[in-house]
Amino acid sequence: MDEAHDDVVVSGVTPGDAGTHVVAGDDGSTEPLVAGHPARAPLPPEAALVYARLLERAPVDAKVLLGSFDDPADAARWLRHFEELGHVRCGADGRLHVAPPRTALAGWVTPRELEVDAARRTFDSVAALYAEHHAARTGFVELVEGREATRKVFYTLLASARDEVRGLDRGPYPEDVDGEPPEVEVAGLDRGVRYSVVYDTGVLQTRVGMLSVGSSIAAGESARVFPGVPVRMMLCDRDRGIVALPRRGGDEFDALVVYPSTLLDALSDLFEMFWRLGVPLQDLGTGDGLHGLDATHEPTRETQHLLALLTAGLADEVVARELGISERTVQRRIRRLQDLLGANTRFQLGVQAARRDWL
Known about the structure:
alpha+beta, Endonuclease, Chain A, two-stranded antiparallel sheet
């Protein structure tokens, strides 16, 4: 901004002083770098707010605009930064004017597109070199050796998912797991990535497994359960997958990363088969006990909880422990549900409950 507005802009202060670093390009230009994260973005949230308000109100007097923010000094820093980048200017009328957003951001997008193209070419070259020397001369699989290396690759794949993640999970879960879903999964769900996982019934036989699955469902994951899930794997966006390869005689394991190929197609078909066969899990939270049945109010949250545990294939003893009641009470509750739905066996109970969308 020109000298007429130096009184409203903190002279010499860049957005980096407001908690957002600014990095210099090779040509001396500056770009916002959010909280030091290596992924650059054209507009951090606080800057986007300033720019959006400019778009809504421009042309506008700088003092009037800054007075509309809770933190005028921070907004002033971003105004000065936008001026340096050519996104805003002070017109002959003394008011602020903004450049069209498409034009203003094109200068940021084009270099980033070139960087992405260069990164992809580099990736292809490195991948080819790896395959030549380490990957048994195949272009669609990579072997990852060791638990820690596998864990890092697994989380990297999840973090890169754009649309969906599908998985088969047979466990086991280490006892030191806190029962919360991985942060990378929660972040993916928050940005709209769909998670669909089929769990082996054995996962729900342990307390930590029950907690982990329940927490993932609460976070937004779609989960089903089926006995005899043969492998632990995750498929990301239908173009990448990772399959765990446990080593015999120990807890160590490796993994196979699979790229577009007939093998990846087969893994996708395997997931879809188990997904069709699996029983939906909607609620594995802690119940408050079991009470008498009232057909006019069924299914209650407690009934759905019980049915979810039963369809997961859990024994009455495990169900009782999970619900905090006696095994006899569990059996009595099941018999009442059978009477209510006209089911002679527990299998028929599950079928009738599914038909009524109680699961």
